[in-house]
Amino acid sequence: MEKQAFNIAIDGPAGAGKSTIAKMVAKKLNFIYVDTGAMYRAIALYLLRDGVDTANEAAVSEAVKNADITIRYQDGAQQVILNGEDVSGLIRTEEVGNTASATSVYPAVRAHLLELQRSLAASQNVIMDGRDIGTCILPDAQAKIYLTASSRVRALRRYKELTEKGTMCNLEEIEQDIIERDHRDMTREIAPLKQAEDAVLLDSSEMTIDQVVQAIIDTAKAHGLKEEA
């Protein structure tokens, strides 16, 4: 009998540290980390390059059909592949991020990526993070976590990250952007951000990264994850 894949779903608002945490958990458990945000960013990059009007849902819906996006690992590093090209280094700009946020609400964009994400999860032990993983993408995931932190803590983390890179920024503006993005994510018509009924709530405001990672591993074990012999 084939061993069933074990899936961990992490949802939560922007800036909660989902991706950083999920990557660390994946490494410790030897799971595949499926970066859904990177996939949406790759779609956004494709639309920007193609000159598609992202406010025109019909145009976006038609264009995404030609965007083939996969995730692969080479020497332990994730590569996001857009139509055969490794675009990992091109999808982290603010412009791409804003475009991804605006276009991820379109049903055609979500549907285009859903099949790949689910097929990966059906055959492999995966950890996936996003806004609607436990509620929509992987509703049958064995372990679900809703990872959050206060808007102030998330703003401070982002502020620190930007200033360390030498970027001039304003803490109040960053927090306001986070509050507005939370509202947008939680009130959107398609797959709004919310805690799945069977998800474990983890507020990382007062926790270290290592404590959050361990809490998620403990949750997975409590939900049936067996350690490899």
UniProtKB/TrEMBL annotation:
Keyword vocabulary terms for this entry: ATP-binding, Cytoplasm, Kinase, Nucleotide-binding, Transferase
UniProt-annotated binding residues for ATP: 12-20
All copies of domain Cytidylate kinase, residue ranges: 8-221
Family annotation (Pfam families): Cytidylate_kin (PF02224)
InterPro entries listed in its UniProt record: Cytidylate_kin, Cytidylate_kinase_dom, P-loop_NTPase
Keyword ATP-binding appears in the UniProt entry: yes
Molecular function (Gene Ontology), one example: kinase activity
Compartments where found: Cytoplasm
Coiled coil, from the record: none
Gene3D superfamilies: P-loop containing nucleotide triphosphate hydrolases
Catalytic activity: dCMP + ATP = dCDP + ADP; CMP + ATP = CDP + ADP
E.C. code: 2.7.4.25
HAMAP family according to UniProt: Cytidyl_kinase_type1
NCBIfam families listed in its UniProt record: cmk
Family: Belongs to the cytidylate kinase family. Type 1 subfamily.
Protein name: Cytidylate kinase
Native source organism of the sequence: Ventrimonas faecis
